[in-house]
Design goal:
Shape: globular
Number of domains: 1
Helix content: 40-55%
Radius of gyration: 18 Å
Order of helices and strands: HEEHHEEEEHHHHEEH
Largest sheet: 4 strands, mixed
Distance between the termini: 47 Å
């Protein structure tokens, strides 16, 4: 007997989750979303998340919250949430040729601080039929575009938002390759397809030896005292300013 959409969604979610914490997700019925502490990923909840991240960044640097720019906290928040949404979508395609179809308002999460946030997607959004890379583009142009729109109050440029998404995709492909080396080439090819598309074109470069570099900065270095924090390994500023990236 062919499993129903809900059962198929649970199976695919389990396979995706096995790749690591940035891929972990639950599947819930659209008509019966999970109970508290789960909550919808609304614009208001994301705004509260930005405030919480700002406080956390300030505390880490021994500063007052207003010493950290709101747009810095917004970019860090956006990058983290983009990674949590795009990683499972990429994994579904790489593992099964499957697509994930969902709106941002259908995503439930637990906005805990420290590490990847728990995420649950509607079970009817898991399609096990063979899908092409265009299914990933639909995620970029759908819920990920909705996520970017929630950053409107924080004056984040589209250039930074697109760079965050490109970085999240590259990170997801790297983690898939580490967990399942045989799927590494498929993941990289899918990301290359997305970076060449209209939504992300020009957001990053990949050298002949496979080194990835975004063409913007996520701004996290500005959260440190005197805005002298370390740079991420894929940051454009490591080339522009000749600064060393953060050590992993």
């Amino acid at each position: 007997m062919t499993p129903g959409p809900a059962a198929a969604g649970a199976v695919i979610a389990s396979e995706i989750s096995a790749l690591g914490p940035f891929f972990a997700l639950d599947a819930h019925p659209v008509a019966a979303p999970p109970a508290a502490p789960w909550q919808p990923m609304s614009a208001a909840a994301i705004g509260d998340r930005v405030s919480a991240v700002r406080d956390r960044l300030a505390t880490a640097g021994g500063q007052r919250p207003d010493a950290v720019e709101a747009r810095v906290a917004a970019s860090v928040t956006h990058l983290g949430l983009a990674a949590r949404l795009v990683s499972p979508a990429l994994a579904a395609f790489v593992l099964r040729g499957a697509s994930l179809t969902f709106a941002l308002t259908e995503v439930y999460w637990q906005p805990v601080l420290g590490g990847p946030v728990p995420v649950s997607l509607p079970d009817m959004g898991f399609a096990s039929a063979s899908a092409g890379p265009e299914s990933l583009a639909a995620v970029i142009e759908g819920p990920l575009a909705e996520l970017a729109a929630t950053m409107g109050p924080f004056a984040l440029s589209p250039h930074i938002l697109r760079g965050n998404l490109a970085s999240a995709l590259n990170g997801a492909a790297t983690m898939i390759a580490a967990a399942r080396p045989a799927l590494g080439a498929r993941g990289r090819a899918a990301v290359a397809h997305l970076l060449a598309g209209s939504a992300l074109r020009g957001s990053a470069t990949t050298s002949a030896n496979g080194a990835f570099r975004r063409r913007s900065c996520c701004l996290i270095y500005r959260a440190a005292p005197d805005r002298r924090g370390a740079l991420c390994g894929d940051c454009v500023l490591t080339r522009v300013a000749g600064r060393a990236p953060a050590r992993s």
